[in-house]
Amino acid sequence: MLSARSLFQEIVDNDDSYRLFCSIAASGEAQGGWENARIAALVPESMRELAPKIARHGADEDKHGRIFNALLRKRHLEPVPVPPETDYTGLLERRGIGLAHDKLRRDEPLSEEDIVVYLSHSRVTEQRAADQMEMLVRHFGDHPEVGKAIRQISADEDNHLAYCHEELLRLAAAGHGRTIQRVLRESALAEIRIYRDVSLATMAHLGQLLAWPRAKSAALAAGIHAMYAYERLGGWHRMVSLTMPGRRGALDGPPTPAPAV
What we know:
It contains 8 helices and no strands. The chain has helices at about 5-15, 15-40, 50-75, 90-95, 100-105, 110-140, 145-210, 215-235. Helix content is about 70%, strand content about 0%. By secondary structure, the protein is mainly alpha-helical. The relative contact order is 0.14. The two termini are about 30 Å apart.
């Protein structure tokens, strides 16, 4: 019987699939770290109070990349190149979701609208990250090899999502509400398509490494398409609602250190 637990266990138990999984995760987190660090450096003067929080967000993402690489080293494995079709963050950027990398490479201050777009995009992608990590913690939070890393990353993603909610609500009250709602909707509808495509590509690569029978690969693909249909029909709304989090100031202070894995 196919289940998230059995699927992930199969990936973890095989060195080749585990190496690809960790390499994809490490690459995406490292890119997120770079993006947030650049945004923190380019925040306009009118929003400078956000710079330390954005920098903290970037430091957390960079830490997650190091955690996944440490998991590889622990098993004496080297990262592998990430297939372009599995590059979630790269595909989002190329689809025009978030801030373009050519803008982030310039040493020119961003606009207030740029920061609103960044936070709106982050609210969508952090929802995805928090959901995924919650699922992994539920099934593998006590795993002797990856459990500690999963729990740390999940806690950080919850903080990132809380920070996005809080700051977007503050910016909406300051007059940016229409822009926030527009960008949230555009980002969510684009993200669910990209997530579907990346999921299909990732499962195809893992299926080759694990020699899955055609029926198993077809069943997994059908499940991914079914999830996309659910999200397209209305599931995406969970990515655009804004609620004041129970924990305020989730990204105040320095980042937590990476756990020993």
